[in-house]
Amino acid sequence: MQSIQANNYPVHFNEIGYEKLNQHLKENKYSNLFIIADTNTNEHCLPKFLPLLETDLTIEIIEFEAGEINKNIETCIEIWNVLTELGADRKTLIINIGGGVVTDLGGFVASTFKRGVDFIHIPTTLLSMVDASVGGKNGVDLGNLKNQIGVINTPKMVLIDTRYLETVPQNEMRSGLAEMLKHGLIFDKAYWEYFLDLKAIDFDHLDALIHRSVEIKNIIVMQDPTEQNIRKSLNFGHTLGHAIESYFLENESKTTLLHGEAIAVGMILESYISLHKKLITQEEYNEIKTTLKSIYDDVVFEENDIDPILELLIHDKKNEYGRIQFALIEGIGQIKINQSVENELILNAFQDYKS
């Protein structure tokens, strides 16, 4: 499968990725190699990965506990201390192998340790393959607030090997699918329509679908690497979705949502807002809502949940001058950014979701 040239780095797929990785190790005089993994990828993915490495470098593995709850500055401090104790220097290479938590956090650790060392991402979940590892965003959560601390800094390469998906549970696969559906809704109507009947999809074509999703995100990011303009389109479903995800993460009475589960709700809500701003038709909204609800279980919202979720919107990173900014779809396959939305319309969107 053809590699994709992103902004200052390549994205390689499957076998060729290991060839390029080993070539990179030979051509660059690194002092040592650190692999950052969580408990899941250390157990399930490293046994597949390590035999494919061709290097005489000293390899150290740094493991942290899996889960979004550990994507914080405290985990970073622990890893920075381990790097220091084990002799990491400016010529160290860090490989982050895992899902979005690992690539986000590992990229942030590498970007800030000694003012920045080289790093490579090897995403192992569908979500991290099509979203988290592509685009140069690295960071951690601040309490329950998603990705509040971070930098935009690109890896030396991204290696996507879809064989790692054999270790991923079905609910995690659905979580990643949400980002692929988003890419269709904001950029490629034909790609969206491919997913309208999941039973008819030939998942032998999964590699090609992942490749197209990475391609779509890369096209957008290449035009606007620092998210001043069109890259904001990738936030469709995320303004409300992130607030919902954060609320369920901090609330002990709620079952924590996977990222894609929250974003699926966000896309339904923000499609409703798009409808009532006359950006999409009723037919398009019905198609989006029906499709997403057929894939993802309904999330139950009590009346006293909504106000705290709306309060979390003020922390959204897209806000400017105190105003909440939405990226809304303008017909399936197109996007309109920097849209202000009144609270009443957001409340109506929740009511419609529950109906």
How would you portray this structure in words?
The strands form four sheets. A four-stranded parallel β-sheet has the order 4-3-5-6. Strands 1-2-9 form a three-stranded mixed β-sheet, sandwiched between helices. The protein folds into two domains: 164 residues, Rossmann fold, CATH 3.40.50.1970; 160 residues, Dehydroquinate synthase-like - alpha domain (Dehydroquinate synthase-like, alpha domain). The chain is globular, with a radius of gyration of 20 Å. The model has no long low-confidence stretch (mean pLDDT 94). The termini are far apart. α5 links the parallel β5 and β6. It contains 14 helices and eleven strands. The protein is α/β, with parallel strands linked by helices. The longest helix is centred in the middle third of the chain and has 18 residues.
Secondary-structure map with pairings?
Elements: E1 4-5, E2 10-13, H1 15-27, E3 32-38, H2 39-44, H3 46-49, E4 59-64, H4 73-85, E5 92-98, H5 100-112, E6 118-123, H6 126-132, E7 137-142, E8 145-152, E9 158-160, H7 170-187, H8 189-194, H9 206-223, H10 238-250, H11 259-276, H12 282-295, H13 303-312, E10 325-329, E11 335-340, H14 343-354
Parallel strand pairs: 2-9, 3-4, 3-5, 5-6
Antiparallel strand pairs: 1-2, 7-8, 10-11
Helix pairs in contact: 5-6, 6-7, 6-9, 7-9, 7-11, 10-11, 10-13, 11-12, 11-14
